[in-house]
Specification:
This protein has 3 domains: 249 residues, HUPs (Rossmann fold, 3-Layer(aba) Sandwich); 105 residues, Four Helix Bundle (Hemerythrin (Met), subunit A) (Up-down Bundle), CATH 1.20.120; 51 residues, no CATH class. The chain is 47% helix and 18% strand. The chain has a 5-stranded parallel sheet with strand order 3-2-1-9-10, with helices on both faces. Strands 4-5-6-8-7 form a 5-stranded antiparallel sheet, covered by helices on one side. Strands 11-12 form a two-stranded parallel sheet. It is elongated. Helix 2 crosses helix 3 and helix 6 packs across helix 7. By secondary structure, it is α/β, with parallel strands linked by helices. It binds zinc ion (ZN). Zinc ion binds next to loops.
Length: 463
């Protein structure tokens, strides 16, 4: 554990590798962006002035290939999927917290400037219309990944005649017919020439962050599989071009999401888009599901786990609703609620400050919801001040995780519905399941109230 110290007191610059917009975003993307959304919310909660930037890769091999398949212009395809991506992020409650989305198309000039710096300092060389980065010139190349140089060979290496080292990577790719391209002027050994082509993937991000944050910044995030080669190459580019170390103070890497332990892929037919999940589940349920695992760990997705997450969400809503609608009393309080809430606030904060331990923070939220629910069930005597304080703290903490955002909890459970729920509980205890199910139907049809049977007892929620 180390203390977080940004470059400039009170301000934080954070960049997260964003979407390559050639297809709909999938559940793995949802996990990644929700992880960083919670981190961004927490950094802001601590009082930092956070600028959170995310890239949108809109020039890429996959975009070009997909556009050709569909008979579209690459940029047309990219804009269409960008729109769908933003729509997904909006629904997940992520989009509003990103300060700036940066498109590769808008940073060609910075990319050119950075390539020129690398050429001037002897880190880059041309092969025809391509420009490559000479990895052997950068001493700390494997410091982020901790890999040995011979391990690098196990990874996919782009073959190209004339490369000085097998792991050298493209900063600029020469134009090919039918592909989008730009013409940039570069000076090599005193001679100016034009290079028609498009940027390599790694240079986009360092050119963008250079424009937004300068030569060094605080936090860079992304999925673990980007450590090598992507983030490794970003460090090599930026530290070589600017001559300043470290390029980034804190690297935060999120764990992958698998489907029942298997990697998600179209060929295995286990590819689940965010849209698929949101057609069945509430976005907040997905956030509870993601928060149930610490960001750096792997999640194995399973629809049953998602249903459990949904029950937790319903439990939070029904508990807070019961408490919110509890009548307050005048005079001195004997409920002890203030102490419970103070402890909860502290526990939640400690969990989040411990490397964003969201599963612990979430369990504290569920625990405090249990106290609120019990207070309501016992009609505890609560003063207005106590209630307002509890609501404020609980709302603030749940807002970090991105749950309890809807105001449905303000509607109290109708008295008749409450009676029916109790009646159903009694019938179930007597194993009169048919009669109990009839009540469940009535609640659904007459009150638009759904019922979950869970570890927390009977939970109700508005449908
Ligand atoms: Zn990136």
């Amino acid at each position: 554990m180390e203390e977080f110290r940004p470059i400039e007191k009170g301000r934080v610059g954070m960049f997260v590798c964003g979407q390559t917009v050639y297809d709909d975003a999938h559940l793995g993307h949802a996990k990644n962006y929700i992880n960083f959304d919670i981190i961004a919310r927490w950094i802001r909660h601590l009082g930092y002035d956070l600028t959170y930037a995310q890239s949108i890769t809109d020039v890429d091999d996959k975009i070009i290939a997909r556009a050709a398949e569909k008979g579209m212009e690459p940029i047309e395809l990219a804009r269409e999927y960008e729109k769908r991506f933003f729509d997904d992020m909006q629904k997940l409650g992520v989009k509003e917290n990103v300060s700036r989305y940066l498109r590769s198309h808008d940073y060609i000039e910075n990319i050119k400037k950075q390539i020129q710096l690398l050429l001037d300092k002897g880190y880059a060389y041309p092969i025809e219309q391509d420009i490559y980065y000479d990895v052997s010139k950068f001493r700390d190349y494997t410091k982020l990944s901790g890999m040995k140089l011979d391990e690098l060979e196990k990874h996919r290496i782009e073959p190209k005649e004339g490369k000085r080292n097998p792991y050298d990577f493209a900063l600029w790719k020469g134009a090919k017919k039918g592909e989008p391209s730009w013409e940039i002027e570069l000076e090599i050994e005193g001679k100016k020439s034009n290079f028609a082509g498009r940027p390599g993937w790694h240079i986009e991000d360092t050119a963008m962050t250079w424009a937004v944050f300068g030569e060094q910044y605080d936090v860079h995030g992304g999925a673990k599989e980007l450590i090598f080669p992507h983030h490794t190459n970003e460090i090599a580019q930026a530290e070589a071009a600017f001559g300043k170390k470290p390029f980034v103070r804190y690297w935060i890497h999120s764990g992958v999401l698998t489907i029942k332990g298997q990697k998600m892929s179209k060929s295995l037919k286990n590819f689940i888009t965010i849209r698929d999940v949101l057609s069945k589940f509430d976005p907040e349920a997905l956030r509870v599901f993601v928060a149930s695992t610490q960001y750096s760990n792997e999640i194995s997705y399973d629809e049953n786990l998602m249903k459990e997450a949904e029950k937790k969400m319903h439990y939070l809503y029904s508990s807070i609703s019961a408490f919110y609608n509890l009548k307050t009393t005048a005079g001195k309080s004997k409920s002890g609620m203030d102490a419970i809430i103070a402890k909860f606030g502290k526990d939640f904060e400690n969990a989040m400050n411990d490397n964003f331990n969201t599963p612990l923070a979430l369990s504290k939220l569920i625990e405090v919801a249990g106290y609120l629910r019990a207070a309501a069930e016992m009609s505890a005597s609560i003063t207005k001040e106590e209630k307002d304080n509890a609501m404020e703290v609980v709302k603030e903490c749940s807002g970090i995780l991105g749950v309890l955002g809807k105001e449905t909890y303000k509607s109290a459970l109708p008295e008749e519905a409450e009676k029916l729920i109790k009646e159903r509980d009694r019938l179930r205890k007597e194993k009169k399941f048919k009669e109990a199910d009839a009540i469940r139907e009535r609640l659904k049809n007459e009150f638009r109230i759904g019922i979950d049977d869970s570890d927390f007892g009977t939970i109700w929620h508005y449908i």
